[in-house]
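During the reporting period, our protein records have gained a structure token line. One record among many is quoted in full directly below:
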Amino acid sequence: DNSGKYIIRVKFPRLVNLRASSGTNEYIGTIGSGRTRLFTLRPLIPNRPIDYRYEFSTHRGCHRVKLNKEITYLFPYKSNEERYVYNDTSFNQLYQVSDSFQKSTEGLSFMLNLDEVVYSMRQGLVIEVKDSFDDTEPIDSLRLKQKNYLTIQHDDCSFAKYEFLKKESVIPKVGERVGAGEVIANVSAYEYDKGYRLKNTLYFIEYDRSSAKVGFSYFQPNFLIKGERQKIESGRLYQFDHSVELIIQELSKKQKKRFRN
């Protein structure tokens, strides 16, 4: 089961004649797929009775996130085409989590053509897919959650959520890895201002140890625009090229050699 990385919190309200190798009665860390040793409980006094009680919680993400700020993101549409791009603070309902706190929410909206192909902006692991909703009817605030999307977890534990996708058009499955610039879906028939809207939200998870709550922090990526790494200016037309160097920037040396050959 390749479901990505999770924050795990284990707390021992009761420890009798036991000590955790973590040094405290609480452990917070990051786990991935497969079996992971978190800590060990050892008796304080040998041959004496022991007892314990524990509680745990998990949240998708990493305990301590260090964003890779050297990454240059790809635009999610075909190279050499001009499309309008907007900063997007509408529809700020990335998730409805009762125990979460949120910081400034801002995504990007790309105005594409009807049924246009959508490309991944960065390589990563597909962790969520929803593509069963009908996209032929207008989307309003009452139907906001009824939209198709795909979420990718990147190698630095940031996430990219692609929203307003065409029904049954999503290609990768949950648990599969996608490369940068890889075709992932088609845009839905949701018309919005100057085109059909693809929303992309980049975020990472923050964990507040004192309150044991998780929060979503959003960020704007850098793109290669006219030969320079920079952030977009809302409401402008952008044209770009899917250069090979951007596509392979996160590959290992061995993978780059294989790609070029």
Q: What stands out?
A: The first helix runs from residue 244 to 247.
